[in-house]
Amino acid sequence: MNKLYIGNVSAEASEEDFETIFEQWKIPHSGPFLVKTGYAFVDCPDEKAAMKAIDVLSGKVELHGKVLEVEHSVPKRQRSCKLQIRNIPPHMQWEVSANGIDSAVYCPTVNTDTETAVVNVRYAAKEQTRLAMEKLNGYMMENYALKVSYIPDETAAPDGSSAGGRRGFNARGPPRSSSPGLGARPKVQSDIPLRVLVPTQFVGAIIGKEGATIRNITKLTHSKIDIHRKENAGAAEKPITIHSTPEGCSNACRTIMEIMQKEALDTKFTEEIPLKILAHNNFVGRLIGKEGRNLKKIEQDTGTKITISPLQDLTLYNPERTITVKGSIEACSRAEEEVMKKIRESYESDMAAMNLQSNLIPGLNLNALGLFPSGAPGMAVCKKASASSGHPESETVHLFIPALAVGAIIGKQGQHIKQLSHFAGASIKIAPAEGMDAKQRMVIIVGPPEAQFKAQCRIFGKLKEENFFGPKEEVKLEAHIKVPSFAAGRVIGKGGKTVNELQNLTCAEVVVPRDQTPDENDQVIVKISGHFFACQLAQRKIQEILAQVRRQQQAKPASGAQPPLPRRK
């Protein structure tokens, strides 16, 4: 994203004019200005310089009677579902909705030149992204005009890359993807950084004299590298965080391994120096795969030995697992690429799920779910402070899973279900089987809405990871919740209207069996079947109906014949 498009350019403008403007505002550029009729292009050496040019020049600097418009240069085919929004009031708090368009907001940073905030936004569809671009670009927010640009999708073919290889011209002139003299577009930085652990005695060699070595690595690999020297004083290992494209991360990691190997030879350090990758625990299960198949394949393909730190090492303050890779530098480098590929795929899958969740269940405190690593973008979806600070009421959900999947949910010596219960903040128990040939088992989950979301999400995910459902088959489960018998009619609605609307809205199958007898608490069962988000939305909507009934019951005079609605269990 370091190439800039400069629009609204006067016909009298020249390359020398732009050189003068960039020099005047002390904005570096790494290539010549390509000036066309009505617009121009230029490369900046890094993202910081590009951001400074956009913030300082766009809509503010005039050239030959025209106010320049400066933005990132992104071809149409590479316009993804991601936008970057700049010039945001720095004190603003964030919701999962921006100007009425649902989105997942993540990666908040502050532009130190203008003291305004910058966020990246992911949308569910390109049409939503286009509408957001139109509505938000130039939108005034507390005297700040928002500036919006696309984040390019590097998986899409650039404009003009047709089978014939010839570039055509459209109404706006030549395609903007590969202007002469400007070179190839830099790849997009990965949302997930590469984090590695290195022995403390090698940190000095990695940094080099006056930082020369680390500067050279960042320059050659086009990466940003943070060495956390002050963390865990006295520890035998220090974490390093690498921000770049996947290729840039891998190149930087390989260079660091080579430096450590050379330093070990120079200092006669005889112990093996494995590659240690840090990864959030939420991604590790999918990296390992069912019966360890994914990990075994990576070991076989790369000729390495890979081990992962135990769950017992996790704490609330350290949700990362250590993935230790042993082998030659070449083998470890290949393994790193494969490991991080799996982790990035898991992250993208979770981000897509989070984005859909923000659309489906408004009002759920997504920021408190903790599904993602705290150090990665997309993890801090900020929300305005809630008016009510009371604790949400606990709910009980009976989730039915294949009987054969019970072992996977429980885990070795019960470790997985304990970890899941701790992570979700819910009580999770497996009910005894109803008969020898039972094909399903009931999982009893007790906890508030957010705990229900996290627990059910990981159970659905675990069943998919362990291949209890086919690769192209969607995981669909049945969940039961209990409602007071006299409130069941409100769930069904007159002539079944409410339950039909529920099914249309949520895509879940919702059934209130009419022939059931209320239990000892005068409650009946509502059955909900569908994929994870359908089940979640149906559960939330039914709980809203019950809350409404409860409010109406509380508002009735004390002499009313109707007994008060009992609290949920």
UniProtKB/TrEMBL annotation:
Subcellular location per the Swiss-Prot or TrEMBL entry: Cytoplasm; Nucleus
Keywords of the record: Cytoplasm, mRNA transport, Nucleus, Repeat, RNA-binding, Translation regulation, Transport
GO cellular component, one term: cytoplasm
GO biological process, any: mRNA transport
Ranges for domain RRM: 2-75
Region annotation (Disordered) ranges: 156-187
Family: Belongs to the RRM IMP/VICKZ family.
UniProt-recorded name of the protein: RRM domain-containing protein
